[in-house]
Amino acid sequence: MYGLAQDSQIRGIVKDASTDAALSGVTVTLKGSTTKSQTNAEGKFVVNAQEGQILAFTFVGYSDKEIAVGKNQNLEILLESAFNALEELVVVGYGSQRRSDITGSVASVPKERLSKLPVNNVMQAIQGAVANVNINQASSVPGDAPSALIRGRNSFSATTGPYIVVDGIPLSKTDGSINDINPNDIESVEILKDPSAVAIYGVNGSNGVILITTKRGTTGKPTIRYSGYGGIEEAAHILEPVSGEELLERYAEYARITNTSLYNGGPVRNEFEWDNYQNGTTTDWLDAVMQTGVIQNHNIGLSGGSENARYFISTDYLNQKGIVKGYNYKRYSFRANTDFNTTKYLTVGTSAFIVAHDRDGGRANLMQAAAMSPYARMYNDNGTLTQFPMYSEQLWSNPLLPTTLDPERREFNISLNGYAEADFGNIWAPLAGLKYKFNGGYSFVPKRTNEYEGESVYNFAGLGRITNRESQTYTIENILTYAKDFGLHRIDFTGLYAAKSKYYQEAIATGEVFPNDALGWGNLGSASTQKVSSFADLYRSVSQMARVNYGYDSRYMLTLTVRRDAASIFGDNHKYGTFPSAAVAWNIHNESFMANTKDVVSNLKWRMSYGVSGNEGIGIYDALFLMNSNPLAMNGLSNAAIRYRVRMGNADLRWEKTAGFNTGVDFGFWNNRITGTVDFYKTRTQDMLLSQNLPRLTGFQNVFTNLGKLENTGIDVMLNTKNISKENFTWSTTLVFAHNKNKIVDIYGDGKDDLGNRWFIGQPVGVIFDYTKVGIWQEDEIAAGVNKGWDEQAEAGAVKLADLSGDGIINNDDRSILGQTAPKWTGGITNTFTYKAFSLNIFINTVQGAMRNNSQIGGASDEMGRRSTPAELGYWTRENQSNEWRSLSNRSNIYGYAFPSNASFTRLKDVTFSYNLPQSAASRIGVGGVTLYASGRNLYTWTNWLGWDPEARDVPRGNTVDGVNDQLNYPMVRTYVFGLNLTF
């Protein structure tokens, strides 16, 4: 008998196979129908089914399981943790592999960090969770994405960020941002780190690869999921300024040192400070420009489908009001992923999304606010903002002036990606295992900025500017795969032919001197002075790749890969680059001699790989001679003349190449109560893309060429432990550790350092090269002549620097390497506690061995008597002869010492407390599942850094660093949110 006359109630309990703990929230589906149930807080479920029908059990973080319904109507189902399941499929680029078959170093981001952590972009979820993936949150400006560095820096001047691929289509090199991808849409994230794993991406792989897979529809009735959170943000640390009384003492000391008079005899220095001082009125300028930030996010996802048509649709809204006034950000996104079985052999689908970013508004200037005297005047008598609150001091303008402007900053990403996959085995049985897949992607990324400055910021002539930028990227991939088992042998082949084209253009229109401010940028044609500029470029590439995976008896694995890329940016003689790799792996635990250790050793695999990858991260036309058009007077007329620019072309310019070795061990003990990986690697990059200076007699100043060698060595460690596994209580720990040593092997082929760029052979790319501070010169030392034969120009209160060369003077020969800008090691520890339906997750990360120049202490940020300063920052006086802080004299740091400081820190990064409503209670209110949570981010930082934060960007006044100006200084934020996840 194959079925019952009517449905019966099937009851059961679902448990963790290794811990025997009940699992709440497991989805139980009757295959071939819309019947679905979910386990309650005790792991129990009830479903109506007939004998012979199939029940499917699915749960995030666990391997799926199916059973046939028998006569037993009380079931006990054991699910294997997907993290420990060696049969789990892992995305590896142009396909997937069983984890047990992987030969390279591929790290998966824990799914709980993707599903349970409220973040604005996925990089925040990766931070500290994967060994040797350094995520730097240098900016907390709303809408800014963190930067990522995998296994150290592999280039002097070319790009160093990882290559990001979303659903098989590259996001990198399209002008898209990781902020374009809504974290709620992400199903999994894999990170390819070793040469074998990244070589499949050839020229794009030298800095590692991040593979993001978004969610897709499943068979069954429609499921609606709502995820939302809201909360507040505040500065994680306030760099408090001095009080009014303390500033007056500073003014008096500055006047004494410089022998200058104060305003009206003192004690204030400037005219606009006098009235407020007389009235006893002070202003907290930091409070004036800062506010409590507010953040909210709402996401609705709809998924479902039939056997032949599946869909996942989501829409998302993020609104963030920053902690500095005017820093606002809104993101609107929509995604549609579909899969259709059009015939028994053809599947087609889409992975399309549209996202809009809104960063409108005038922004207050935190640096200007920190410089303001508490006695400074904020408003004029007519109620308008003063231009220079400390007038007659005109170095520092009113930090609130930019908030009177209303610029538009808009950015969009429209990505329409689709695929078609043919399974030839369903056409003709002998072709089983042979598949062809076509991927096509189109990305349109327009950006616009409209700005106008007028009378409100004391620009009485008026200045308007409209900037439009856009890029269009086409990607085509043809992928042929064949997988077949021959007894104990398994063959898996992947072939690729791909092409890519990216067109970029920009146009900038500027107008100056307007009749009035009424129309702003809306009528640049009314400006007396008009200027228009434009630029465009075109990039094209083609790629071929072949990969063969061979496995024998689930014990021995071999992977061979070769990729060939050609790109338009290189010289005519070297358009193509070839990148091979090879890897082997041995599943030791599957050997017969390990049979007696099964109770102890549940997984033991050794891996080794070697491969070559590339980097093309230079400007599209950097290999060419470029010419300028300039007006030239001839015969009394202005004629256009063509001349070469400063850079010489190079037809022999070719790819940077990174060759690397990796060996690693994956292990699991005591039924995977303890699991982990350890990897050791060494890479060397050569033929590095460098701009080399040329003798002026050539007619050029520089040329891009292939010179230099760079080396990285390091170790990655990840350890997972299940410390306590009881029915109602569990405690698990994840520990990551990474060490990387970066070393310059050669620069220009002559064995010499490049002092101007701070590149030194045998040292990392980023170093602090400066004098060694040994104290502060004291009056008695100067009187005794201690500075003679040491620093003849020294005066009391000046920085005392070591005479390392011993030549009796302080000069460039006394500088040395004091530290490195990249951390020497990083680590993170995550502890997860569960008690029945409650869960507590605590994550701490640490960054050690990094050094930064401290602009808060340095002269660029402490302009002596012309500004307020942080209360933590002291200064030398005759009465307080500090040996740490210099005096207010403008000669106290004549050598330009940059005050490098230890930027190491340990941070309580995330704490999340959640509660899953029991299924019985959820059913009573008509929902499929309810999760409530509270989460805090950047809660506390242990550091000796003097400043807003050791990780936060701190750009000195008037400077531009990596294209970012001082107006974008922004503190690290502490975030508290409350969230709700609902399933219908």
CATH architectural type of one domain: Beta Complex
Individual helix count: 9
- Percent of residues in helices: under 10%
CATH superfamily of one domain: TonB-dependent receptor, plug domain
- Topology-level CATH name of one domain: Ferric Hydroxamate Uptake Protein, Chain A, domain 1
Verbal overview:
- This protein has 984 residues and is mainly β.
- Among the domains are: 8-79, Carboxypeptidase-like, regulatory domain (Immunoglobulin-like), CATH 2.60.40; 89-223, Beta Complex (Ferric Hydroxamate Uptake Protein, Chain A, domain 1); 767-820 and 872-889, no CATH class; 836-858 and 898-983, no CATH class.
- It has 9 helices and 51 strands.
- It has a 22-stranded antiparallel barrel. The protein has a 5-stranded mixed β-sheet with strand order 10-15-16-13-14.
- Belongs to the TonB-dependent receptor family.
- It is found in: Cell outer membrane.
- GO terms for molecular function: siderophore uptake transmembrane transporter activity.
Give descriptors for this structure.
984 residues, mainly beta, Immunoglobulin-like, Ferric Hydroxamate Uptake Protein, Chain A, domain 1, globular
Give the structure's gist in a few sentences.
It holds the Pfam family CarbopepD_reg_2. Residues 100-209 form the TonB-dependent receptor plug domain. The chain has 984 residues and is mostly beta strands.
